Amino acid sequence: MREPGPHHRITITGHDGLVRVRANGRIIAETRRALRLSEAGYPPVLYIPRADVAEALCRPSPKRSFCPYKGEARYFGLEGGIAEIAWSYEAPFPAVARIRGHLAFDPDRVEAIEA
Prior knowledge:
Number of strands: 10
Strand order of the largest sheet: 1-4-5-9-8-7-6
Distance between the termini: 31 Å
């Protein structure tokens, strides 16, 4: 586990406004409670509370990945064939604990993330 610091900053802030995620011609997530995670060297990512995601549309995937700053990510696919459309840190490291219970969507696998 690595701690964010001056050489690798991670900040989490509330995102003002409405966020909608569209895939397969429908809205699969909509919230005014998104978190914006900014990490050194990467574009910002919006994390949406699970309660604001149409989870019936997302199925767990066997894929996992690991970030030394955030922990293990679990992936989800969309019913109807879009694999690994979103990810979640089920037990994030303490420095990013605010993203627990949230999903982030891959902008290359959805039609749109409107923010």
